[in-house]
Amino acid sequence: MSHTLVRRPQRRPISAGGMTALALSLALAFSLAPQQVRAQDAAVNVSIAAQPLGDALLKLGQQTSLQVFFSPDLVAGLAARPVSGRLAPEEALRQLLTGTDIQYTRSGNNVRLSRPVAEATTLEPVTVSAGILGTLAEPYAGGQVATGGSLGLLGSTDVMDTPFSTVNYTSDLLYNEQARTLADVVVNDASVRMTTSTGGFSDDFQIRGFAVNSGDVSVNGLYGLVSSSRVPVQIMERVEVLKGPGTLMRGIPPEGSVGGAINIVTKRAEDEPLTRVTASYMSESNFTGQIDMGRRFGENNAWGVRFNGAKRGGEATVSGGDQQLDMGALGLDYRGERLRWSLDAIYQEYDTDSFRGQMGFLDADIPKAPKGDTNLFPGAKLTQRDQTIMSRLEYDFTDHITAHIGAGYRDGKNRQLLPWTAGADANGDFTIYNYYYDSYSKTFSGDTGLTATFQTGPVGHRVAFGVTRMAQENGNSFTTGGMGNSNIYDPAPLPALPAERLRPAKTDDTTLTSYALADTLSFMQDRVLLTLGARHQTVNVDSVSSEDYRSSAVSPVVGLVVKPLRNVSVYANFTKGLTSGGTVPLGYGYGNEGDTLKPYKSKSAEAGVKVDWGSITTTAALFQIERPSAYANDDNLYGYFGEQRNRGLELNAFGEIVPSLRVLASATFINSELTKTQDGVNQGNRAQGVPSRAFSLGLDWDVPGVQGLAVNGRAIYTSAVYLDNAHEKRLPGVTRFDLGARYRTEIAGKEVVLRANVENVADKRYWLAAGQNGSNGYASYAAGRTYMLSASVNF
To answer: Which part of the chain is the Secretin/TonB short N-terminal domain (predicted)?
Structure first.
């Protein structure tokens, strides 16, 4: 059942007596845990006109401290009488409900509405294990994150019942921060850091110090179906971040991520009709128009359709550049008593002229970063086009047995006119080569499975069996052109293009197949949850230019959640995984450039504690991940010959500090070490590109006395990193500040939301560690101060 929310409800209000069990929660849990805020019954000014009851309750939530939630069916067809004057909040609520049979129960600021039932019925406990098409988890206090999310094979799970570190961002956060792509969302977590900057070649991330490429982002649980470069925010309803390997949950990530996994949940039509038009501006002169429409129809609103379309164009954060987006996404769904079905069709095309470049460095003395709007490679061009269709079907054979099948296909093409350089010297001078690099991929991705819940004596079980398969054909072409000289502070036009542009040729067929079985056992009335599972994985690569290979492995997973108090979860997990190898970089002179590397194995362990204080949840986790690292050997062949180990501590807090003040806070400390290197050189050093610490803090505040006005701010800190394993090249730490405001009002009877955000308020110049090339890395220069304005109108 969907619910209409008036403000955001506090979740399971509890006492703070859980402090005695918090050895692992450390300082964050105590420093951010607020005292419980009780509703104030002092009279306030209330002015609510006669209108539909649901709308009147929304007004009540805006004008008082009460937080009311209810089913839309409960108030359908009911009207509220006008209520005005100086009243206690609860008295105003009673007056609105006069003449109805609706009852309410109150706990602090929380109010639940219901109708009386003829007699109380004791229901058998049921384990909810909805799949991707199940009801989305309710937003947590503050509305920026959800109380749970999908974990693939393990189902949709509450954060407190999960033996992993997860965060699930809601659409409210995406809108209020004016996120443009997935990258703008995930940086709210300190364990996730961007390795490319706004307006660059692609959106790439780092989770717990290990690279996560865009190609490893799943959509509705399936890999390989969104752009391998960047994902527009317009298709997203939720963004689910799992920190740590996610092989058991969704299978083998196609590009080998081990630090974490990101899943996108696409938009679905809600019960209330939606027609929203948004116009946006981004400095210097980039404009976007977007329409978002949703309708449900049929008996019990069983059928739904949601359409999102966007068009963007104009110069953005690179002087003389042009960033264009054409995007359309259609989502259909059916929700019956036992059958659920969805279909998504997505088209997106990015055309970027003069995108933000990346640079290596020849000397230990790294030059100062150029201005944020510098056009480092004038004339570079990138076109990315992706077409995706996917569908999913779920059926409940009984109340305890559910089957599902999901499948999708994506056709992706990249056409690129790109520069390449060995790196800049201390003065910023560099030699540049111009080339064409075009590529394509054709991907089929699917999964199917069966879930059953049952009891064996006092022990509950959720048993899930699943099969995944991803088949991908890849191809590319690489043609070098002319050579020239340039400088990062005074860039020269690109040298002459190659005489001929080659058609991309097939390089490999990669097939990733897996079979998984997992059982989540519950003991002592769900106070102890034990997850045991394993996934058998097979990687099969038929390569055109190098040796074919096939490799299989079993990835076991053990996860444990213990709840010593009902608001405290202590958890631990251990997993091993097989990961497909990447592609040897082109243009660096390796003897095997362009080859696909063999799979490698990694292992991970984690332990932590989560505490739900009622309106704030705090978490702490200790983790260790070990995986092979890549470099060129004595024969100039690039491969996974070394090993890297990342150990760390994560601290997180999210929710409402007090009513109307929302927080997202996190800190990550990583000890990254090269535990195996070529001939022992640099062994024991920190791995390149991995910060020792990172912090993210975001606050969002409803301004008192000005109805509809809210302001927000965000600080993102990343410590210094090394660009090489020898520790000769070092980028200093940096802090970025962002500010924003929004105003919600009515104009001509239509709801209007005005938003203004500024990123990099201080216009700071800095380098981001962007990637690795053997033992040397390269960097991306950050975007400068960026203004964003938007106006949304709901018709």
So the answer is: 66-116
Q: Considering only 435-449, 509-523, 675-689, which range has the smallest mean pLDDT?
A: 675-689
Residue 20 main-chain phi, psi, to 5 deg: -70, -15
**b (16+ CB within 10 A) / e for 327-350:** bbbebbbebeeeebbbbbebebbb
Fold designation for 4-114: Phage tail protein beta-alpha-beta fold (3.55.50)
CA dihedral over 248, 253, 257, 263, signed as positive or negative: negative
Q: Which helix (H) or strand (E) holds 574?
A: strand 568-579
Mean pLDDT of the region 9-20: 37
End-to-end CA distance of the chain: give it in Å, rounded. Answer: 25
Surface-to-core class of residue 177, CB atoms within 10 Å of its CB (0-12 exposed, 13-18 middle, 19+ buried): buried
- CATH 2.40.170.20 in the chain is located at 266-794
Task: Delimit the CATH 3.55.50.30 region(s) of the chain.
Answer: 4-114
Q: By three-state DSSP, how is residue 720 classified?
A: coil
Q: Tell me the per-residue pLDDT of 126-152, one tens digit each, with 9 for 90 and over.
A: 333 334 455 789 999 999 999 999 999
Q: Are residues 522 and 562 in contact, defined by beta-carbon separation less than 8 angstroms?
A: no
- For helices 89-97 and 53-63, angle between their N-to-C axes, nearest 10 degrees: 180
The answer to whether 64 and 89 have CB atoms below 8 angstroms apart is yes
Residue type at position 498:
P
Q: Are strands 44-48 and 83-87 parallel, antiparallel or unpaired?
A: antiparallel
User: Cα-flanking dihedrals φ and ψ of residue 665, to 5°?
Assistant: -135, 140
Query: Which residue from 389, 387, 391, 382 is spatially nearest to 412, judged by alpha carbons?
Result: 387
User: Taking the mean position of all CA atoms in its chain, how far away is CA 739?
Assistant: 21
How buried is residue 316: exposed, middle or buried, by Cβ count under 10 Å (0-12/13-18/19+)? buried
Mean pLDDT of all residues in 41-49: 80
Any idea of the CA torsion for 126, 402, 339, 4, to the nearest 10 degrees? Answer: 40
Euclidean distance between CA atoms 310 and 792, whole angstroms: 13
Give the strand pairing for 110-114 and 67-70.
parallel
Buried b (16+ CB within 10 A) or exposed e, 466-483: bebbbbbbbbbbbeebee
Region of residue 77 (phi > 0: left; psi between -120 and 50: alpha; otherwise: beta): left
Q: For the sheet containing 218-219, what is the strand order?
A: 165-169, 236-243, 260-266, 218-219
Could you tell me if 756 and 741 are in contact, meaning their C-beta atoms sit under 8 angstroms apart?
Answer: yes
Residue 728: name the closest of 665, 790, 682 by CA.
682
One-letter amino acid at 661 equals L
543: tokens are 């390569």
Give the C-alpha distances (Å, rounded to integers) separating 333 from 129, 297, 301, 307, 763.
19, 11, 11, 12, 45
3-state secondary structure 235-274: HEEEEEEEECCCHHHHCCCCCCCCCEEEEEEECCCCCCCE
- Say what the pLDDT of residue 103 is: 86
Rg of the chain over Cα atoms, rounded to whole angstroms, equals 27
- pTM for this one? 0.82
Rounded CA separation 467/452 (Å): 15
Which of 650, 569, 572, 571 shows the shortest CA–CA distance to 613? Answer: 569
Residue 16: pLDDT above 70? no
413 in Cβ contact with 397 (< 8 Å): no
Residue 202 has a pLDDT of: 82
CATH 2.170.130.10 residue spans of the chain: 148-265
Residue 277: helix, strand or coil by DSSP? strand
Domain 148-265 has CATH 3.30.2350.10: no
Distance CA 188, CA 666 (A): 8
